[in-house]
Amino acid sequence: MKVLVINAGSSSLKYQLYNMTDESVLAKGLVERIGMDSSILTHKPTGREDVTEVSEILEHTTAIRKVIDMLTDKENGVLGSVDEIQAVGHRVVHGGEAFKESALVDDVAKAEIRRLFDLAPLHNPAAMMGIRAAELNMPGVPQVMVFDTAFHQTMPEKAYLYAIPRVLYKKYKVRRYGAHGTSHDYVSKAAAEYLDRPLQDLKIITCHVGNGGSVTAVKGGLSVDTSMGMTPLEGLMMGTRSGDLDPAIVPYVMNKEELSVSEVNSMLNKHSGLLAISGISSDMREITEGMENGDANSTLAFEMYEYRLRKYIGSYAAAMNGVDVIVFTAGVGENSVVLRQKVCEQLTYLGVELDEALNAIRSGEPRRITTSNSKVDVLVVPTNEELVIARDTHRIVLNSQ
Ligand code: ADP
């Protein structure tokens, strides 16, 4: 079965075409600047030269049509005809409490996603546009939604409820949902596989640290706690997000600076985190460079980022009464040798013993970075959210036939 994976944002659309016989990627690409003057389609057929096409793409339906044209193009395509695409998988950010796992797209599911627009106003409408666009371009082809929140639906009440009036949960579903679920799910399973140990027996802490970041406590294969909350603002310090803070700061600052709700939202989501503290960048590469050049603000930004990540690891070891495996993944987790080193150096109380030579190796494969004496295995596992979407789509479509 050939499965097209779609990750639609408000002005962008990423795609990957899988051949599920061997889970190989036939092509992938990205449409950027949808709705703007000159949209850019970058198409990457596996093993061949990238192709870039600039045109006017006003909305997602045209974007998917252009993608299909490219996938079936005589010169740059990888398909004889669009009919070869037998299923489409969509990334959907928020599945609320309704979706505990990936689901086939039907009218009921679409109505539920619309109800969730309130909880994910930036992301879910974009996913819905992607679904509509795929339906219009590939009528009759089954579609599946894969949710960032679904993996965390196993969290117990004591972990997902906020200590605020219960009526807010009853009326508005104010609770913690978490995010990056497909990634935490994938890397925890991949870690157990790499170690050749049963997932059911393991206490794993997965650290997905990229532009956004979250840490999850995975016990026996289930998410029992995660650092992101009702929205992706809670938890770790991130590229441009503040992460945890005293909620009383919000009304205090709004009052002092006469800020509106949307202004304070923007401040905490877009102008905080590494960017705010360093005053330079939200990109960990630039922060690291600043630190190496002796820039005090970059050094402070790095130290705060590392310290907060390490505190979450400690708290999740406490939540699970121990930890067997710690996994680093995503842009920063997979690439920052120095971040992993600084975190692990302060986890000796858990029995972590870092192997500096292993930590310095770069490879696209799962690997251990601790010594054979280490009580906890620390791994780097490259994440692959698209593959999870393709696998779920394949399985659900096969089961529905
Ligand atoms: P997203 O959350 O947008 O999916 P990624 O997981 O791709 O982000 O992570 C992007 C971040 O990874 C970049 O902002 C950058 O800070 C970080 N990154 C990428 N390469 C390196 C590197 N070699 N060293 C440190 N950080 C890196």
TrEMBL record:
<feature type="binding site">
    <location>
        <begin position="283"/>
        <end position="285"/>
    </location>
    <ligand>
        <name>ATP</name>
    </ligand>
</feature>
<dbReference type="Pfam" id="PF00871">
    <property type="entry name" value="Acetate_kinase"/>
</dbReference>
<feature type="binding site">
    <location>
        <position position="7"/>
    </location>
    <ligand>
        <name>Mg(2+)</name>
    </ligand>
</feature>
<feature type="binding site">
    <location>
        <position position="91"/>
    </location>
    <ligand>
        <name>substrate</name>
    </ligand>
</feature>
<feature type="site" description="Transition state stabilizer">
    <location>
        <position position="180"/>
    </location>
</feature>
<dbReference type="InterPro" id="IPR004372">
    <property type="entry name" value="Ac/propionate_kinase"/>
</dbReference>
<dbReference type="GO" id="GO:0008776">
    <property type="term" value="F:acetate kinase activity"/>
</dbReference>
<keyword id="KW-0418">Kinase</keyword>
<comment type="pathway">
    <text>Metabolic intermediate biosynthesis; acetyl-CoA biosynthesis; acetyl-CoA from acetate: step 1/2.</text>
</comment>
<comment type="subunit">
    <text>Homodimer.</text>
</comment>
<keyword id="KW-0479">Metal-binding</keyword>
<keyword id="KW-0547">Nucleotide-binding</keyword>
<feature type="site" description="Transition state stabilizer">
    <location>
        <position position="241"/>
    </location>
</feature>
<feature type="binding site">
    <location>
        <begin position="208"/>
        <end position="212"/>
    </location>
    <ligand>
        <name>ATP</name>
    </ligand>
</feature>
<feature type="binding site">
    <location>
        <position position="385"/>
    </location>
    <ligand>
        <name>Mg(2+)</name>
    </ligand>
</feature>
<keyword id="KW-0963">Cytoplasm</keyword>
<dbReference type="InterPro" id="IPR000890">
    <property type="entry name" value="Aliphatic_acid_kin_short-chain"/>
</dbReference>
<comment type="similarity">
    <text>Belongs to the acetokinase family.</text>
</comment>
<keyword id="KW-0067">ATP-binding</keyword>
<keyword id="KW-0808">Transferase</keyword>
<dbReference type="InterPro" id="IPR023865">
    <property type="entry name" value="Aliphatic_acid_kinase_CS"/>
</dbReference>
<feature type="binding site">
    <location>
        <begin position="331"/>
        <end position="335"/>
    </location>
    <ligand>
        <name>ATP</name>
    </ligand>
</feature>
<dbReference type="InterPro" id="IPR043129">
    <property type="entry name" value="ATPase_NBD"/>
</dbReference>
<comment type="function">
    <text>Catalyzes the formation of acetyl phosphate from acetate and ATP. Can also catalyze the reverse reaction.</text>
</comment>
<protein>
    <recommendedName>
        <fullName>Acetate kinase</fullName>
        <ecNumber>2.7.2.1</ecNumber>
    </recommendedName>
</protein>
<keyword id="KW-0460">Magnesium</keyword>
<feature type="binding site">
    <location>
        <position position="14"/>
    </location>
    <ligand>
        <name>ATP</name>
    </ligand>
</feature>
<feature type="active site" description="Proton donor/acceptor">
    <location>
        <position position="148"/>
    </location>
</feature>
